[in-house]
Amino acid sequence: MSAPLYQSPKGVHDVLPDDHLYFSFIKKVVRHHCRRAGYRRISTPIFEDIEVFTRSIGGTSDIVEKEMFTLESKSGKKYALKPEGTAGVVRAYLEHGMQQMPKPVELYYIEPHFRYNRPQKGRYRQFHQFGCEVIGESDPAVDAQVIYLAYRINQDLGIADRLSLQLNTIGSMEDRVKFKEDLINFYTGKERSLCEDCKRRMLENPLRLLDCKEEDCQILASMAPKFENVICNESKEHFEILKEYLEELNVPYELNPLLVRGLDYYTHTVFEFWSKKEGSQNATGGGGRYDGLIEIMGGQPTPAVGFAAGIERTIEYMKEAGIRPPNKDAVAIFVAQLGLVAKKKSLTLINKLRDQGLNVVGAVGKDSMKSQMGLADRLGAQYSLILGQIEVQEGTIILRDMKKGSQETVSYEGIVDKMVELLGKNPLANKKLWEE
Ligand code: AMP
Predict the structure, then answer these.
(1) Chain segment 130-143, per-residue pLDDT in tens
(2) How far from the centroid of its chain's Cα atoms is residue 426's Cα?
(3) Is 84 in the same domain as 133?
(4) Atom 18 of ligand 1: nearest residue by CA position
């Protein structure tokens, strides 16, 4: 096969039908759990004023420094494709006066995001995230509920056991100022052992020195001062209570004093779900508290907490776990026909079967019977119904069980009822779409 004339751009990919089975299933599970917990869905634009991200995520984060897809309008206004969900949600919260709504305001999203990073397995330039934000409540019980929601979703997707919840606190904004000084004191004189990125981080965002993935930097990080030495009593208490709540909810966690998360806006609780697989540090998702963000974005000081998970990585872990989502698209019946009269009749038959909630594909072209049956095989149809000239004359139809390879001639009259009997009644049959 010669190379195609066009290919998708580097780092972005098509979601093909097989992966859509996973996408649909994940969306369903997310929607189910979010709705049950009182969350309402929000979608923010694919691109925003660039400042929405630079102000909120922080100018020293990898995302803002290196990973944003930026656009410029003809008048010179700068925009960026959204690299994550929280900034846009907070912008929308403030723009639409959601401060007036009963607190906490609970929102969830399922959206594409864009980061200009070096594409590799599990890291793309366009990817999808589901996430939730709870705005307006500072109680650690909310942190626990958000973490529980993420954990429950992972359970229903069949991957909770393969992931370990990493948990840490990064204290208040004031604690972080003190901690940054401690870190700078510790790292001063050791710059030569740091990678290029960390040399820069030391000047710009020393907290990020702790979660560098380079081996030498990790060794130094393990010897660096610990956050628990500077953390204020209020933050300590918040974290202690959160841990008690998680134990009450039976959510297993691992304390990880080096977890800081990449974004600047976090305070207090931070968490990530990591693969337990040896050598793999790919997180499926993470989040934390961001009590200072709404003020940074121009609102009144308002506590908030949230999380986001990557759909592509979630799918990867589901595949590793051998989980196949239920396939509602599976073809139940293939209708084959030969001759004009049979073709006419088969069109009505296909619709009648579909009205019963059955997935039906019909061959309406002029292919030979052999190639029609080949197609039925490739589509994985459970049954084929074959209508030729003789069958039309006799008022019959051939019913073929594709798995067993056996077939019988049955009456055309009762064929719809017979298929419903064989395949089971679909509870959605004859229901309107909005009643599902
Ligand atoms: P973050 O907020 O950066 O921790 O992202 C949350 C989750 O989104 C990660 O744990 C990944 O599952 C997913 N994610 C982030 N960046 C990418 C990317 N470039 N490609 C694919 N998934 C990503």
Answers:
(1) 999 999 999 999 99
(2) 29
(3) yes
(4) 123
